[in-house]
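quick one, 150 residues, struct below
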Amino acid sequence: MKMNKLPLLATLVGSAALAGCATLEETIAEETVDTYYATLTGAQEVGGGDPDGAGRAEISISDGFGQVCWDLNDISGIGPITAAHIHVGAAGTNGPPVFPLRPTNEGGYKGCTDGAEWTQDRIEDNPQAFYVNVHTAQYPNGAIRGQLRR
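---
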């Protein structure tokens, strides 16, 4: 009796494809996303910010995809936002911006973009050495600010 080799070949190819999927799943599962938070207030701004201002920031960093994502939410008590950044600087000190937080087309501040690896590594090593601040026309140096934390 002659055996048809086509079903055997199809089984082998299918098994190899499934093994490849398992490897891809494992790779995706191994990707790490670190998320940091900041409670934003005017009182944390060096030199004074908006005393009525408040908000929250969530910053997520994906090592494997090289992305930084942000979500500024519950912003209240301040005028229209003119800019927002992640700065390097300990609490009570000002520092240079290292990462811009851009608005969406709808007007909110939420999104993702490619991030410089050195910035990501430095934030992951010491998130408290970085802060988020939000600028307005009335407070061009910063209306609200908060240090990052895990």
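The chain has two domains: 1-30, 32-147.
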